[in-house]
Amino acid sequence: MGPLVPDIISSELNYIIALIVGIGFGFALEQAGFASTKKLVGLFYGYDFTVLRVFFTAGITAMVGVVVLNHLGLLDISIIYINPTFLWSALIGGGIMGFGFIIGGFCPGTSACAAATGRVDGMAFLLGSVIGIFAFAEGYPLWKDIYTAENWGPVLMYDQLGMSREGFGLVMILIAAGAFVATTMIENKINGKETKWFKPVIIKNSILVATPLLIVLIVIITPTKREVMDKRIDEKIAAGECNPKIMEGDKLAYELMNQYYKYNVIDVRSPEEFQKFHIPTAINIPLEEMHKSGSLGTIIQNIKTNVFYGADSMQSQRACMVSKYFGKSDNFALELTAEEFNKQYFLITDIDPHGTKQEVDIQNFRIEAGKKMKEIGEAVANMDKPVMKKATRVSGGCS
Fold first, then answer.
1. pTM score of the predicted model
2. Fewer CB within 10 Å: C terminus or N terminus of the chain?
3. How confident is the model at residue 60 (pLDDT cuts 50, 70, 90)?
4. Which among 263, 303, 304, 310 is positioned nearest to 285, based on CA atoms?
């Protein structure tokens, strides 16, 4: 499952959903009072921490959801884009944003919300944002160097702290709980109220904190979908049940020469190894990525027969087991490794004059098969390229 766009939701429908979600988000902001500068700047003056509670809660909820969906194999977080960290841009931009928030009382999103409700200050703030965008774009050459300085790439906090993703999630939940308690006490003190912790409130808040903690703890102690699959396959291998069908190199070469369209040749090595050499018509799905939803759509189909090969026989045989685990039974493991196939069909040049007739016939077949497979591979690759129409100049007429 996922990404939602375009796998599940079409790109066109995505715009409609985005519009509906945007309207709903704006409505929620307005109902929460975020169209008022008094509510927003209360965060900085200490008399109202609604902004912190709302956005911290939203962040924790999203974090727990991502952790759970990733654990269940329903979300591939490796395809989630992470904005690169440009240190000086973050520091200077954060400072400008902070001062603008304190002075103007809005952030860009809440200013749009305020403007939509007819507030003049929101409109003025939004106009200033537009002017700032144009000023930044026009003056970009002046601050390009500092804007792109200290590029740290996609930085992840749990990597920097040497923690697991789930462990960092637990820490963030506890920090959020502590922040909510501390800000409640500060808020009451600024507003001249006495902080009282009644038993029903304590019980309710404890449940609210314990629920995400328990969910993340369950994620930590239970195996992932990939771990369950690997364990079951290892058990079958240990029990001697790993007996995939083996296809000889000459058999695959013959089939590719005559009916390549019936076979799904899958290279389970790394992309780097695949680029150095791969069997013509083959596609690259690394062994460690076969369980992902994007790969399963190619593997689990009823039209072609899968033929797996890799850097060694264990890779191709394990790939067969993974494919069978997910329901595809028509699989073969290539007898040869990628390197052996390359030597046997593409690097062979001379025929042994002292060999038997059968050996000479086999060598001739392999030389011809190598040439034919290259031709087929190039033809298949060109099928995916757009047809380029050559422009011709029209001549004739009156000169």
1. 0.74
2. C
3. very high
4. 310
Q: For residues 210 and 250, state if they share a domain.
A: no
Domain count for the chain: 2
Could you read off the pLDDT of 113-139 as tens digits, one per residue?
Answer: 899 889 898 899 999 999 999 999 999
Q: How many Cβ atoms from other residues are within 10 Å of residue 137's Cβ? A: 8
What secondary structure does DSSP assign to 194-229, as a single string? -----HHHHHHHHHHHHHHHHHHHHHHHSPPHHHHH
Residue 165, both tokens: 């993703």
Q: Which two tokens stand for residue 245?
A: 């069908």
226 in any annotated domain = no
Phi and psi based region of residue 54 (left: phi greater than 0; alpha: psi -120 to 50; beta: remaining): alpha
Beta partners for residue 246, in sequence order? 333
Same domain? For 96 and 202 the reply is yes
Tokens of 375: 């031709």
Structure tokens at 173: 């939940």
**Amino acid in position 393:** R
User: From its phi and psi, is residue 5 left (phi > 0), alpha (psi between -120 and 50) or beta?
Assistant: beta
Q: Are 317 and 241 a contacting pair, CB within 8 Å?
A: no
Q: Say if residues 71 and 134 touch (Cβ distance below 8 Å).
A: no
pLDDT at 387: 56
Joined together, the tokens standing for residue 29 give 């902001």
- The whole-angstrom separation of Cα 42 and Cα 178 is 19
pLDDT tens readout for residues 185-227: 999 999 988 888 888 888 998 999 999 999 999 999 999 888 8
Contact (CB, 8 A) for 366 and 345: yes
